[in-house]
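Could you help me review a protein record that somebody else here produced? Do not assume that whoever made the record got everything right. The record follows directly below this note.
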Amino acid sequence: MRPFIYAANWKLNKSPRETKAFFQDFMAAAGGANAKKSVVFFVPALSFQAACEATEAAAAALGMSTAPKVSARSAPALGIQNAYFETQGAFTGENSMSVAKEMGAAWVLVGHSERRTIFNETDANLAKKVEAGFAQGLKVMLCIGETLNEREAGQTMKVVETQSLAALTPTVRAKLAQAPHEFALAYEPVWAIGTGKVATPEQASEVHQFLRALLTKELGAQTAEEISILYGGSVKAENAKALGQMPGIDGFLVGGASLDPKAFQAIISA
C-alpha cells in the first residue's frame, strides 16, 4: 500500500543554525505523533549536514529511530532539492547524488518548476537525473505541472502527460517494476506555487486521477498502485484536510508553510 507523504521543500531558506533550531522544535512538538506517517524534508545543500545532525540528536533524545523502513516512531527522512546526473567531474557548483547518499539523503527532488523555469532544465535532462537518483540508491520525487497560460489553454493534461512520460525511460521503467515505492510524482500547478492561490480539491483530484490512469496504462496496475502522487501549491493547514480527502491525492509537497515547525506540523495533523 502506497504511503501518504508529507514533503517539505525549503528551497533557498534556512542556515545550518536555523535548520538545527527547526528540527529541535519540530521533533519535540511531534513527540512521536508522526508515527506511521511518511515525512520528508528537502533542505538546502549547505544545510544538509546540519539537518542530519539535528534529526539524529532529536531522534535519540525522543527514543526514535533514524533507520530506514522503520514504520513507527521514526525520524523524518531527508532529501536534496537538486543534484546533477554525473557522479563526479568538472561540473562547478553542482551537487553529487552519491555524496548526498553517503551523507544520509534518502530522497532527491527532481524537476521542481523553479528548476524548469529559472534554470531551464529540460525533460530530457530531468530524465537523466531520475535515472541517476535510482542508480545511487536514492528515492526520486519528480515534480510536474502546468503554467497558468497552459491551464487556461486547456493543456493541463497534455503537459503533465508529456513531463511524466519523458521521465519513464526504459531504465526507469525497469526500476519501477522492481521498486515502485521508491518513486513519487508531485503535481504542482505552477500558477499555485507561492502565490497564495491553490487548485480546488476537485481540480487537483482530476489531475491526480488522470496521472494514476496514465501510470496504470504505462506501467501496469500493480506498479502504478504503489506510486504516491502528491499535490503541491500553497498547501496550508486550512486546506490540507479537504485536499487530502480527495481521490488520488497521496500527500503534499509543501513550500512556505513547511518553514515553520508549527505550521508544518498542523498540516501533518490536519
In short: The first strand starts at residue 5 and ends at 9. Residues 8 and 41 are 5 Å apart (CA to CA).
